[in-house]
Amino acid sequence: MEVKKAIFKQSAAGLKDCPKTHLPEFAFIGRSNVGKSSLINMLCNNGKLAKTSATPGKTQLINHFLINDNWFLVDLPGYGYAKTGKSKRQVFEAMIQDYCRKRENLVTLFVLIDSRLPLQKIDEEFMEWCGENNTPFSIIFTKSDKNSKNELAKNIRNVEQELLKKWEDLPNIFITSAEKKTGREELLDFIDFGCKESKF
């Protein structure tokens, strides 16, 4: 797939405020500071589409971007940012869970994981929640350029082994680098296939 057009459509404070549409949606989520905005901008060939910041926890709404006039890329708030107050974290969690469970045209949720780290408990718990709630998800390893090839392979293998302790099968896995544009074609091809197969 070639991204010819990518425009910000709207922000929503909750599911009820999301666009009324039957277009397929692909949502991106992860721990704060996992590189989500940079990845979105890389996918769309637009360095200013999603707002990047050195301060974690900047995405606080459900942001919809219309791509090629035929599907939505959805930027969800990050989870697990410690400096966010408890009450605000609960609001974010409710917003995310509501969207993931009830958004009928959600094709896949991409869960972003920092490829430099061992499997984080909060990532594992979120993926378990997805499984329990029948939310389809794929894993995107970010920042692959920050590791040597051996370190990257070892880290990913360790995460997979941890997941297989509780999962019979692994979800689709993508390895990316926003800086090097690694994984861009594979991700867009996967989304393209999902758009064609969606029944919305």
Helix count, DSSP H or I runs of 4 or more residues: 5
What is the terminal-to-terminal distance? 20 Å
Main sheet overview: 7 strands, mixed
Helix vs. strand class:
alpha/beta
Strand order of the largest sheet: 1-3-4-2-5-6-7
For this structure, the quaternary state is: single chain
Low-confidence stretches: none
Question: What is the strand tally?
Answer: 7
Radius of gyration: 16 Å
The helix fraction, in percent, is 25-40%
The average pLDDT score comes to: 91
**In sequence order, what are the helices and strands, one letter per element?**
EEHEEHEHEHEH
Shape verdict: globular
Beta percentage is 15-25%
Please give a structural write-up.
The chain has 200 residues and is an alpha/beta fold. 33% of the residues lie in helices and 21% in strands. The chain is built from five helices and seven strands, in the order E-E-H-E-E-H-E-H-E-H-E-H. The chain has helices at 36-43, 86-102, 121-132, 149-163, 184-197; strands spanning 6-12, 25-30, 62-67, 71-75, 106-114, 137-142, 173-175. It has a seven-stranded mixed beta sheet, with helices on both faces. It is globular and about 45 Å long.
